[in-house]
Structure formats: C-alpha cells, structure tokens
Amino acid sequence: MAGIVVGRHYVGGLVGYNDTDGTIDINYTLIGGRVAATGDCVGGLVGLNASTELLEKKLTIKPSSVQGRYYVGGAIGANVVNPEENVTVSGLKVDNSLGTVTAEAFCGGLIGYQRTYAAANLGGKRFWEALSDDLLPGIQAGNVPGTAAASLNNHTITITAKKNSSLKPPPTT
To answer: Contact 50/23 with Cβ under 8 angstroms?
Structure first.
C-alpha cells in the first residue's frame, strides 16, 4: 500500500484510532506512503493504539515520512494500553530508510509515546474521556513536556530489538 494520508488528530497509515478491543488480522505492509497531521497521535500504522493485541502482530511499515505535532511514531504514534499480562513486542518492523519521522515532542522511530495504565488510572471515566486529561501528558507553557499520573498497572511492555527495527542506515559515501 502506498499513498498519502492527511488529517488532524489520530492519523495512521492504516488505522487512526485502534480501540481497546481492536486488532488487525492481516499481514500489513505500508511501502512509501506519507502520513501527515497537523495535530497529535500520528503513526505509520496506527495513530493511537489502545489494544495490546496489536502489539503481538507481525507488521512491516516502510513510510516515506510520518509527521505531526505530538506523539508521532514510525509504527504507532501513541500506544496507551492496559495489559492484563506482560507483553513482548517483537514483530513490528519500521524501515524508514527512505524517509523521516518528525514531531515537536514525543517522537520515536517505532513508537512516539508508550505508557500502560490500569482501570484505577481512569478515575471512573471511560478510556476516551480519560485519554487527554489523565493518560497523555501534553505540553505545558514554554514547550516543556507535561506529566501524567504514574501507571498503576504492574505489567510490562517489552520491546525487543531483535526483530523490531527503526534505524535509518547511515548514508554511503
């Protein structure tokens, strides 16, 4: 798949917002596409992911560029999940040797912003309602990254370097 995807918030090469029970049941490869947003949560695959199931898939993303304001990643812009067990991410491959991943803050070659949470972190709100107030830190005055309450979830998300990739090889001379 190649093309241009443009939006404001929650913009992804395949999915803008992947809900808590969402998953992708295909072998997905984005080659040479451009994903751009003027706002937050932008990813070569998913803008905002709330599902641990997606993290266990084998997916390849080769964007020519991914750009946004905050929470921008080569594969996932913001990964905000409530794992019920420890999760190992080993099948996401981002090969951005053809392009760039750019943002003002919270930018990563694989994932722009990663955090876990527990139901207690929601403060009685639904996930969507708690997202911007309690789970994403935002930017404070003076372009200083804000803070979010510490996660009450005891499970971990381990991202292995073995099969995941987000490196742009050095130019050849």
So the answer is: no
Smallest Cα–Cα separation from 12: which of 52, 51, 58, 63? 63
DSSP 135: I
**Residues 58-67 pLDDT 10s:** 888 888 899 9
Tokens of 100: 């760039």
Burial tier of 162 (Cβ tally within 10 Å: 0-12, 13-18, 19+): exposed
* pLDDT value at 78 more than 70: yes
How far apart CA 57 and CA 87 sit, in angstroms, is 11
> Distance between CA atoms of 135 and 157, rounded to whole angstroms?
16
pTM attached to this predicted model: 0.84
Give dist(CA 23, CA 150) in Å, integer: 26
Give the separation between CA 46 and CA 11, rounded to whole angstroms. Answer: 7
Distance CA 96, CA 136 (A): 25
